Amino acid sequence: MKQNSFRTSLFILLCFLLFSGTISQAAEWEMKKGPMMTKWSETIDPNNVLPEYPRPQMVRSDWMNLNGVWDLRKGVIDEAYSADFDYDKKILVPFPLESAISGVMEKSDEQCYWYRRTVVIPESMKGKNILLHFGAVDWKTVVYVNGTQVGTHTGGYDPFYFDITSALKGSGEQEIAVYIYDNTGMEGQPTGKQSRNPSICWYTAVSGIWQTVWLEPVNPVHIASFTMEPNLDKKWLSLMVNPSEPEGVTVNAKIKDKEGNVVSTLENGNPAGIIRMTIDGEVHPWSVEDPYLYDLEISLLKNGKETDAVKSYCGIRKIEVKKVGDIPRIFLNDKQIFQMGPLDQGWWPDGLYTAPSDEALLFDIRTMKELGFNMVRKHIKTEPARWYYHCDKEGILVWQDLPSPNLPKGHEDFAKANFESESKSIIDALKNHPSIVQWIVFNEGWGQFDTERMTNVVDSKVNSLNPARFGKTTLICCASGWTDAEVGNIIDTHSYPDPSCPSNANRAAVCGEYGGITLKVPGHIWPGGDFQYTTVETGRDFTAFFNGLCDKIKDFYYQGLNAAVYTQISDVEIEKNGILTYDRRVLKPYSPYGELKAKIEECVNMPQNKVIIKPILSTAKDHKYTWRYNTTTDVPRRWFAKEFDDRAWAKGVAAFGAGLPEHSADLVSTEWKTSQIYMRRWFYLGDITPEMIDKLRFVLFHDDDIEIYINGVWAATRTGCVFNYVPKDISEEAKNALKPNSWNLIAVGGKQGGGQQIMDVGISAFVTEDFEYTENYDELENPEYSDIPTPGIVITPRFEKILQPVPAEPAQSGNGNETAVGEFYHTSDRSNVAWGDFDNDGKLELVYSGNNDHLSSSKQGAALLYKYAGNDEFERKDSPFDICYYACPVWFDYNNDGLLDLFVPGLKNKDYENDLNDVAAFLYENKGKGSDGNYVFEEVNVADKSGNRMGIYPIYNDTDGGRSRQWVSVGDYDKDGYLDIVVTGRDDYEDADGMLAEDGNVLVHHDRRAVYLYKNDKGKRFIRQETPLNGTDPFLGLARGSVYFADMDNDGWLDIVSSGYGPNEGNLHVYWNNGDGTFSETGQHFYGSYDSSCALGDLNADGYMDIVVTGYSRNKGGNAKSFFVYKNCGNRSFEMLNDAFCGFEGVDGATPSLGDVNHDGLPDILVGGHGAEHEITTWLYLNKGDFYFESYGAYYDDPFGKLGSFDRISHGNNHLVDYDNDGYLDAWNMGWAQTSVCSKSCAAQLWKNNSGSKDIDSNAAPSAPKNLRYSYDKNTRMVTFTWDAATDDVTPASALQYNLYLRKAGSSEYFMTVPADPATGFIKVAEISGQIMTTSYSMYVPDENVDYEWGVQAIDNGKRGGKFAKADFNPTTTGLKKKEVSDVNVYVSDGKVCYNVGEKNAILKVTDAAASLISVVSVRGKGVLENLNKGIYFISVIADKAIKVFKIIL
After folding, report:
1. Exposed, middle or buried: residue 281 (CB in 10 Å: 0-12, 13-18, 19+)?
2. Which three-class secondary structure state does DSSP give residue 367?
3. Which of 452, 458, 486, 483 is CA-nearest to residue 473?
4. What pTM was estimated for this model as a whole?
5. What's the rounded Cα separation, in Å, for the pair 174 and 120?
6. Exposed / middle / buried, residue 756 (Cβ in 10 Å: 0-12, 13-18, 19+)
7. Is 254 helix (H, G, I), strand (E, B) or coil?
8. In what helix (H) or strand (E) does residue 422 lie, and over which residues does it extend?
9. pLDDT digit string (tens) for 709-727?
């Protein structure tokens, strides 16, 4: 007993001495400060580093952790060990040399180092063989113990050990020295994502020891290793035990359940072969939802005596690919699964390859699970065994990549042999983990060779213990991404940002990488640049974009997709597309455990979602319909219209195509080999409810692009190709066009670029509850046809550049090449300009400011004011305005004094980064003519970060991505007689927690996009409306877009149209004015755009404002330059007309201007930008009618300059403006110029419309309206003005717009909806907003017993205003006070207008938004008003000599 006590005391003393030495060493070691650190690095104890048992699947009770502070010295390649080495550094093992936590943080193309430490072998280990284990060392390792070499190992990703017993001294300290060499794959060694030159998606190289180092005592006869494979069907666990000595040994083993019950026993098993253990009773499978693990105990006996015992665990599961119908699907434990998970590259900012703690490893895994993921792809890297142990315990499926090699010239043979060897070692180390369900051999072709052979090599290692006829334990993917071979169980593709789905008859399709949504979180950004697939700005953007991609994944599920891998779980260095920041401190998405998790779970649950797909119009897979088709280019523009007579087209049976692979070839019945196809057929839609119509989706098989119309209405577009049938949403407009119990037309257009091709379309209801419906397979024999509208012949105008518009202007010079004499100042920041008559002389002045690169740096900033002097000449005057860069100036009379004031938001510093005082919102009040004869302006807002005087906050729009845009609009949205402001852009702000930026100042955030509505408080101040949307929310913040006031539904109230960058990139929103100071949105989805402006105009002269959309949009499926129109159909509904139909070329960087340039009554479009095919181009699109436009003025249509093409200018602003009042709209083009136009790539030009020389008449002003009338409602204090429509020489009466003014009799102040001269009718601005769309207008009047004067003028499509018709009124003598009836209600229910007037005898008077009487009915009690179409109605309930009016939106 005393002897044991002595030994115990001696052991404690030795441990104390060893620990004391460690403390001394630790005192000399210091962690480095990396560019970014995790929270776990803050709590690292160098005396207790990664203390957890490192090999959970093969546990022995006695071991010794050697992690901690080691000595370190720089070595020489292949040098021999020397006891005299001088170790001058300290390193914390097991962190890579290049990591901050290691304390070294040194990088080199060739790392060569010596590690050293001493250890005292504990008494309990003596008498046994001592094994020295290394979890992983990159790349070459030579180990010496007490100067004796004990082993060499190559390979950076697999664990290894050496028996060091023979090199140990009898007692005392034992020296361990480790030589490492790593050249980061210069000879083809697997390196994964390591790089000597980190960039893009390649990261800091790692070298040296990067996993736990430890000692373990064993008997001479011991278990060296073992492998196992489960078989769920047979209830087997197959074992292969590898003893250190094979002779005379047997194996005993037990499997226990969680309660400790033995469920299988093995005695005296033969380790020379495969041992199969059968589980008694029912097997409890391992799964994601229930990661049940059995305990496994294995002992080794030599001549019947136990010499070794280890504890382990196992999971019993199976995974397989089998077909559901003809689609290969993945099944886990006989249940079909959809796998959804992130790419996990296993990098840490402070530890690089090594996580700072076991808690950190577990954090990532639990975060994945908590977000709803059920899988993770470990990307071309391995992890310590504990990471896989956590996956086993937590229940997450693992796809394990083999770390990629490369094949450098001259080292190919070595690289191939080495990759095969390292791969086998990695598999041996990891294959026992039940969580690993898939091995990936190669990634994206990197170092790929002998794909079939290597896949079989991996397969034979992974699935080696169970007979093949009983299935495989783990699936094999030969190549993730591309360079596929017809081998393995999986076919995998990568695509960014949208997911994709490959196709194979026998292998399961997965998307191994997609997404890559970059969101930069200030304070959590690795330095050195950016690599990104797509970028968002806020957490809400991230969630919206991510969830949108999930919806596409759900659609691909029907095509055959089985899994999708999002890139990635965390940022890695300059790749900032993680769900977590690199330091794991910030979870980026908005509502990560709410909206984002719910969408992930939708994907995961796809196989169990119980969706019934009920055909309404079958695809060729189920029924071979006959179509009319045409494969030539000789088709009319409205080939998709119901009226088109297609009887000259051929008949063919679907599907149409050629060259398809064998498993799809049977679908094709009609050969199609040309580059295009047009298809039409009538189908009978039976008795189907509106609720079921809402569930309808297309089912498409297309290669390449497809476009679909229903009853002449655009229904869907999809670009690219798919490899099987996939669902696609039908547009709301097309759903509304469907007619139940009637024949409907479906028209399909297809485009083909090359290779295999197919077009087939069906319609199905995607429902969760079945319903009665019988598909009608009949053919419509004799459809009714009629004439199709034919666009007119366009009248071509003539424009000529004014070469010296400012004759007195000298050449602009001082910084290289100069401009010619007489030019307008150029600006490189592409600010917008404002034309306005601020001095009431009947001529438009021009103001703008910006940076002129032609001038010397001290003079480049300039604020410009030009006055028209006649004879096509301008004079530059001294500007009273401040320089404002990237500005959007707007003229308007904010205080009703009859003088135009100027609002200019933008930047005071063209190089603005973080100083909020650089952001401006100037408001210049026009004080009238000063003593010197010049007009005086006073800046009254004085807006900066500290405040503002008039209530308008500083705001700006992006300085890149389209530059100048129409991002400010004015109009009287609340009808109080004062013009209000709506503005969109960026509202930067300082960090709320005071986080500091790199320069030491408080961090400024640039992620707050805004659409701000400012109410004009009677000219005294502006009040920002914080919750204008439904009275509860702000408008959705957007940037890089545009905003407009306009009456879009002709109800007399100004609505707001907002476009720009926001959630899911391009956005377009129409906010409908509720008439009570709030706005609402309808359910129609709009394809929006960004990096460009939208514009508004009545393109077809029907009296409704249409929306012109330019910029990057997804209206064609993918994100691309677009140029399309939303036709306003009335009743708050729109129909999309694409660029091909309209004759446009997709464009970005555009600020369109609309107006009639050729005196045909239709508005044309002037626009400059980067075209989809032609960069830096200015176009004039001439309106031919029926939304068809002909390009004029583009340089590429006029190579010899004989037709009058515009110079190449884009990304600035364009304005159609009649600067000389000659009745012809001229063209102002300013912005980024092609270098042949300006050596500094900037220009500002004015092009005179000389169409009079082509016998095109000038635009005459419209007539004055007649029969002016008015009424006053004392309850609402609103006056309603009405008049008869005016006439015009070319603009149709339906397309005329109106401008109204109101003033108290004798007053010089007046309100006007659009700035104009009351005496002459001259419109005082070039760009008109806030105009009246009908012959009626209501507004509030402040005083009742006052005489008022009012006037109204017509405005035509040439922007010309007619004379004002004028009248007087007095509310007290014309108004009748109305008593409001009580206890009555009119409301919408189930799409019908209902009323309840109780027991009263009431009259219901129904009028539409244009005040046209619809009906008058007598009612009593409750009921429904029949025969009302969708739209806006005012319903007056008259009873008991009283009245109450309801506004109804149906």
Report:
1. exposed
2. helix
3. 458
4. 0.89
5. 6
6. middle
7. strand
8. helix 412-430
9. 999 999 999 888 888 888 9
